[in-house]
Amino acid sequence: MNNHYTDINSSIIDSWVENNWKWGVPISHETYEKALQGEWNVLLTPTKPVPKSWFPDFKGRKILGLASGGGQQMPIFSALGAECTIMDYSQKQLDSELLVASREGYSINIVKADMTQPFPFEKESFDLIFHPVSNCYIEDVFHVWEECFRVLKKGGLLIAGLDNGVNYLFDENETVLTYRLPFNPLKDPELYQECLNKDLGIQFSHSIEEQIGGQLKAGFMLTDLYEDTNGSGRLHEYNVPTFIATRAIKK
């Protein structure tokens, strides 16, 4: 098995973006213009917009979009007056950020980096980290929470979208219990090859203990959360929550 699974995921996500992946299509000029006028929303999970009450005043805030490339959220925050940095390991996702920034005439700091490694930022660099569902592509999420805590200022916010693991139990049609949890291809050669054959990337299920408990162990205080569904498919039809969004603060 390839030890550099994040490089595989980077390449696969690049290919998804080239094929109009939902999370890789940048916002339109019209959407940006509406944000300038105060009409906006952003997603952490498939269907539910993040409550605006979760955010501080954006003016002058330093925001890190963590694995949040694609030109979807950072343009909104930039339009609202924030100073944005995007960190992603997919070049195509970063290219989408540059496309929107160039089109709309704002500046953004672009950083290509692997979030399984130490983040390339000084401690207490940011007021807010916006982290949509993406840590399903890495094995160790606790490292991410520790690094988020380190680079946030005191009183800073971590706003994150999390997969609760349910999606990894089922077959493609979401009708048959097929896989055991935790879903970890690095510990199962057959599963690893299956993920490559199906163009899924090397993905991982994570428990609530890892996702929310990990934030708490890193030092965050949880202030709010909500659940969401896939937005389509059989689990969605039965209203099965498969994602959680969390708001936490560095005290």
TrEMBL record:
The protein's name in its UniProt record: Class I SAM-dependent methyltransferase
- Xref: InterPro entries: Methyltransf_11 (IPR013216), SAM-dependent_MTases_sf (IPR029063)
Gene3D superfamilies documented for this protein: Vaccinia Virus protein VP39
What residue intervals traverse the membrane? none
Q: Which GO terms describe its biological process?
A: methylation
Q: Which SUPFAM superfamilies match?
A: S-adenosyl-L-methionine-dependent methyltransferases
**Database matches in CDD domains:** AdoMet_MTases
The molecular function GO annotations come to: methyltransferase activity
The Methyltransferase type domain, residue ranges:
65-159
> Carries keyword Methyltransferase?
yes
**What is the protein's species of origin?**
Neobacillus paridis
